[in-house]
Amino acid sequence: MWDYTDKVRDHFMNPRNVGEIEDADGVGEVGSLACGDALKLTFKMGPDGRIADAKFKTFGCASAIASSSALTEMIKGLNLDEAAKITNEDIAEFLGGLPKEKMHCSVMGREALEAAIANYRGIPLPLAEGEVVCECFGVTDLEVRRAIKESNLKSVEEITNFTKAGGGCGKCHDRLAEILREEQQTGAGTQQIIPDQRGKRLTNIQKIKLIEEVLEREVRPALRKDGGDIELIDLDGDFVTVSLRGACGTCKKSQTTLKEYVEKKLREQVLETLVVEEAK
Which residues carry out catalysis? Predict the structure, then answer.
């Protein structure tokens, strides 16, 4: 498992403010189910001009849920100008830190907040107008440049950790490296650029995407025929944590299903070193 802080675990296991405000004043939606992460943030303003309530719905890993939960707690009681100053680093700090590979979850939270505030104020989001450099996850050059500036990123791998760009097919790695060089030359990042050393090794985001594809295409249909289902909970290196749902969750042969069917499928179609474990 990832080395999560106690606060991340708490907000994942006991998320605050889950749901959606029906008559919300501000609505922000970012990400997509196709990309593996999605977040919808809604908030309601109080008569004092401060955020009286905030709720979220998210699809993603433990860090995505924890970051979304933390964000709703952070913004309640703030006016919009105060809320707009919250950064992804603030969200991660509130949780006691996040694994570097999961920083994009805090970024998604900040982006949802910005989208919700823009929705309330009736103004467009400038980052949506950028050039899409990562087709897999729909990340624009403006999003990449912003992440480089704000988080002092030094490598393509760090860009992937913060934005998910480059975590799919990898075709945009050269373009990401080019943007990184441009930001360094303009003084946005005076740090030394670290070359991307990943080569053809799968990143965690690439693994997650492939795992989800196999689960959706082959595993879930088979389990659903018997009244069961499966959910990907997390990925730590080659250790895949899943949760069996429905009839599969109470079946005495669940471990056999995990090892002889799920793990076998993932090893055949994703990576032969994967180990499947059930969430405790």
Answer: 35, 105
